[in-house]
Amino acid sequence: MPQAIDQPDIIVIMSEGFWDITNLKGITFEEEVLPNLKALKNESLYGYTMVPVFGGGTSNTEWEVLTGFSKNYLPSESTPYQQYINGPSFSVASYLKKQGYDTLAMHPHFPENWNRNTAYPYLGFDQFLSLNDFTNPLKERNLVSDYTVTNKIISEYKKYKSLSNHPLFTFVVTVQNHVSYDHNNYTTQDQIKFSAPFLSEDIINDIKDFATGIHHSDDALGKLIDYFKNVNNKVIIVFFGDHMTTLGDSTFKVFEETGYISNSSTNSDEYYKTMLTPLLIWSNYDSESKDIGIRSSFQIMPTVFQKYLLTMPAYYELLCEIQKYSNGFTNGIVLDQESQVSSSLTQTQEELYRIQELLQYDMMFGDQYSKEKMFE
Q1: What's the CATH code of the domain at 97?
Q2: Backbone dihedral region for residue 210 (phi beyond 0: left; psi -120 to 50: alpha; all else: beta)
Q3: Residue range 265-321, pLDDT digits in tens
Q4: Do residues 325 and 337 touch, judged by C-beta distance below 8 A?
């Protein structure tokens, strides 16, 4: 692969419960819900990430993003952070650390959640900032706000750059928009205004909370980008949601009432649509605008490395090769290169995903015969 001339700083933000509600029909908002995300598409790679969970299980999405591994090859009820991260493990953080990066993880909630305080060091992070490291944070919905997180990302970036000449990899998991939703979380004056005459009252009440929250998250993202547009160092920012969420008093009710999916929500042709969250890949030195369609969450970092010509492990090259033939694979649902649900794997897809499965097994449960050749 081509070599990068110099190493950019990389910030990856997984935004809690962030998905694009404007994709649902029958809801008319009085203002743009995600104006910054929409505007940034003009200078970014953008699309959707296909995540392995719905409504919860945040750590499974972040595990896929950080490791490039897939939940497809593990028991459906498993949680890798709690069951399989028992020692030093491959991740983008551990890989970049060997490339000379400082590595920072940040999550403004309890460090024990999903066993992050144990998993992050094993995944190669030098430092983990949790709720304990946020002094008198501004809260929203009784949780640390995304505005606070934006300010923390910037302040930590400044601190690292004042102390070190190393490039910095920062991985952030927000918490502001965590379920469950309650219209009383925002005053009527603060709530984003909309009309949805055909939706149930319980859904409408949840939207008042949810849409306002992601609107503020979008604003915080805009403020973050505005800052990093003007720094001298090369910076890449990756932003995506961890999973979609339930609105209303039953799991898929809002999606069924808006016609986003039919009542037969177990149909894989539609079910995958409940696992799509916005994906944005921006940098302050390359303003190409390109719709990259759908990427499995384990494909996000290889996409970043490929786009910005970063030196990548051979395993990432495999994932980039897979991307030529399949845009997504999770929970047994496979998308072809046109993002259409396929009833079965083609021979090429099967061969490539089988290689991924074998490499993942070797690194997680085997003797790591492939480590030196594929992951370093």
Answers
A1: 3.40.720.10
A2: alpha
A3: 556 678 899 999 999 999 999 999 999 999 999 999 999 999 999 999 999 999 999
A4: yes
**How is 241-310 classified by DSSP, letter by letter?**
ES-----SSSTTHHHHHTTSS-S-TT-HHHHGGGGEEEEEEEESS----EEEEEEEGGGHHHHHHHHTT-
Stated length of the chain: 376
State which residues form the domain around 198: 9-311
- Residue 122 domain-assigned (yes or no): yes
Pinpoint the alpha helices (H) of the chain.
35-40, 58-67, 80-83, 92-98, 116-122, 146-163, 201-228, 253-257, 268-271, 300-307, 314-323, 347-364, 371-374
Q: Which residues pair with 178 in a beta bridge?
A: none
Q: What is the tally of structural domains in the chain?
A: 1
As a whole number, the mean pLDDT across the chain is 95
pLDDT in tens, 221-280: 999 999 999 999 999 999 999 999 999 998 999 999 999 998 755 566 788 999 999 999
Domain presence at residue 355: no
Report the chain's terminal Cα–Cα distance, integer Å: 14
Residue 223: CB atoms within 10 A of its CB come to 14
pLDDT given for residue 270 in this prediction: 83
- The vertex-60 CA angle with 147 and 263, nearest 5°, equals 95
The model's pTM = 0.96
Distance CA 187, CA 227 (A): 29
